[in-house]
Design goal:
Layout: E1 10-11, E2 28-29, H1 38-53, H2 58-65, E3 70-72, E4 81-84, E5 90-96, E6 101-107
Antiparallel strand pairs: 1-2, 3-4, 4-5, 5-6
C-alpha cells in the first residue's frame, strides 16, 4: 500500500481544480477533506480504497525513480507507517495526533 508524500498529504488521485467527486488519477491534497461534505469524503475514500485494492506497485516505483520517498504499511510495524527513500533508507513513522503530523520514531 502506498501513502505517497504524506508530509504534504498528497495522494495520487487528481488535480484540485475539480470537485472531489469528479477526481480521477492525478493528484489530490487530502487536507481538502477538512472542508469536504460527508458525501464528498465518502466518495473520496471509496475511490482511494479501490485504488489501493488494485495497486500493482507502479506508482510507488515511479515516486522512487523520481527521487521522492514513499510511505508504506509493513506488517512488522502495525499501526505505524514506514517512509522508504529512493536510496533504500527506511524510517519508522507514527502519527502525532496532538500536532497533526507524522513523526520519525527511528531508522529501521
Amino acid at each position: 500500500m502506498i501513502l505517497a508524500d504524506i508530509p504534504s498529504l498528497v495522494f495520487t488521485l487528481t488535480t484540485t481544480d475539480v470537485p472531489i467527486s469528479r477526481r480521477g488519477a492525478l493528484m489530490i491534497d487530502v487536507r481538502e477533506l477538512n472542508d469536504a461534505s460527508p458525501t464528498e469524503e465518502e466518495q473520496f475514500f471509496a475511490a482511494f480504497e479501490m485504488m489501493i485494492a488494485n495497486d500493482d506497485g507502479a506508482e510507488a516505483d515511479r515516486h522512487l525513480r523520481e527521487g521522492r520517498p514513499i510511505y508504506i504499511a509493513d506488517p512488522l510495524y502495525p499501526g505505524r507507517a514506514v517512509r522508504e527513500y529512493p536510496d533504500g533508507r527506511r524510517e519508522l513513522m507514527r502519527f502525532d495526533m496532538a500536532r497533526d503530523e507524522l513523526v520519525v520514531e527511528r531508522s529501521i
